[in-house]
Amino acid sequence: MIDIASLKVELESRIAASDTPADILKSKEFRELYASIPTLAVDERKEFGQKVNELKETIARAVAKRQEQLSAKELPAIDITAPFDVNAAMPALLPSDQGTIHPLMNEIETISDIFNRMGFVTEESREIDDQYHMFESLNFPKGHPARDDWDTFMTVETDASGDPLIAPAHTSTMQNRVMRKYHDNLENNQPIAVIVPDRTFRNEDLDARHEHTFYQVEGVYVAKGVHAGMLIATLQAFLEEYYGRQLEVRVNPFYFPFTEPSFEFALSCPFCDKQGCNICSQSGWIELLGCGMIHPNVLKEADIDPTIYTGFAFGCGIDRLVMMKYQIEDIRHLESGKLDFLRQFSA
Ligand code: FA5
Q1: Could you tell me if 210 and 281 are in contact, meaning their C-beta atoms sit under 8 angstroms apart?
Q2: What is the rounded (10 degree) CA torsion for 269, 270, 271, 275?
């Protein structure tokens, strides 16, 4: 049987010396290891297979680290203070000395303000999180197939249990934290009412509506007797206040592991008046947010008794809200740093 421990040492030293470390993941040693599994006695296969998988994960992390070292060497120096692409033609107007607030930040203030007036407090998320908050606390047990629906960016750093840390793919990573932080509200007959507007990251195929880096606002409301009608009324009130007019919304049943029942909220496409265009993928509607009644397991995980309390949660794409407000035809303008675009929003 191949000695995995000594193979690990050998592969690690080859990675450290290699300029193309990813090749080592495809090396003949791995093929031989996998090929040897069926030749083992049945009772040895499981343990050996697990060891092979662990080796592959360790080696993949070592490869990623080495690739990072190599690319750090190659990167040209970047002037992060440059206000625009230094190689591009000068814009007609130079940026002002003071700069202006990015439109997304302005809109986050407006969104917070509306929810604060409705009794919600605002909390911040984080840009690196652990798998417990991304998955387990949200009722995705280890190995749950729905984990694959979330196109997360993993980092090479690991948490205490050895799992890679991740760039959060949604602001729902904060649900457990805010329910714990405001738990005492319930004993004082006050609801837990929190919003979390912050940055999220996904390994996406980019298009006019999909960015890899975007913003969401999470909402969490827990008290006695909360029901889905309150969720829909809260969202409709927020959206009508934000857009300053009555809106056509569509609520469809959906699936999220952390809410039951779950819904998807869409707004009629303001670009084509529901006729169908590129921006709404010819559907006439733009999907704006996911929401639902907080799953009892998610409440229990935050030490809240689901037989006494119920709650709703929602996660709304802020970029999409803003796109529709200002009729921005491509989401990628928002993170582009293009001054011509940004200047249109400076007061
Ligand atoms: C979620 O992220 C859930 N966390 C929402 C949720 C929260 C459900 C609480 C239940 C309870 P979803 O993947 O559908 O769900 O994303 C929510 C919204 O984020 C989308 O409706 C969309 O407006 C926005 N969004 C998602 N992916 C992107 C992307 N790549 N670019 C821009 N906006 C996006």
Answers
A1: no
A2: 50
Tokens of 54: 């662990």
Return the pLDDT at 292.
98
Ligand 1, atom 33: closest residue by C-alpha:
317
Counting every residue written for the chain, the total comes to: 347
Spatial distance between the Cα atoms of 172 and 196, rounded to a whole number of angstroms:
9
121-122 vs 153-158, strand pairing mode = unpaired
Q: Which ligand 1 atom sits closest to the C-alpha of 170? A: 2
pLDDT of residue 98: 61
pTM above 0.85, yes or no: no
Rounded Cα distance between 333 and 346, Å, is 15
In the chain, % helix, strand, coil (3-state, to 5) comes to 45, 20, 35
By the 8 A CB rule, do 203 and 153 touch?
Answer: yes
* Ligand 1 pocket member 256 (CB < 6 A): yes
For 156, counting Cβ atoms within 10 Å of its Cβ (0-12 exposed, 13-18 middle, 19+ buried), the class is middle
Closest-lying ligand 1 atom to the alpha carbon of residue 202: 30
Residue 259 pairs with which residues in a beta bridge? Answer: 256, 294
> Which pLDDT does position 68 carry in this prediction?
85
| Alpha-carbon span 332 to 307, nearest angstrom | 44
Q: Which residues of the chain have pLDDT under 70?
A: 1, 74-98, 347
Return the pLDDT at 89.
56
SS3 120: coil
For ligand 1, atom 24: residue with the closest CA: 317
The pairing of strands 213-223 and 192-201 is antiparallel
CA 336 vs CA 35, 39, 211: distances in Å: 48, 54, 11
Cα–Cα distance for residue pair 172/126, rounded to 1 Å: 11
Q: What is the pLDDT of residue 83?
A: 57
Q: Which residue's structure tokens are 């007036």? A: 117
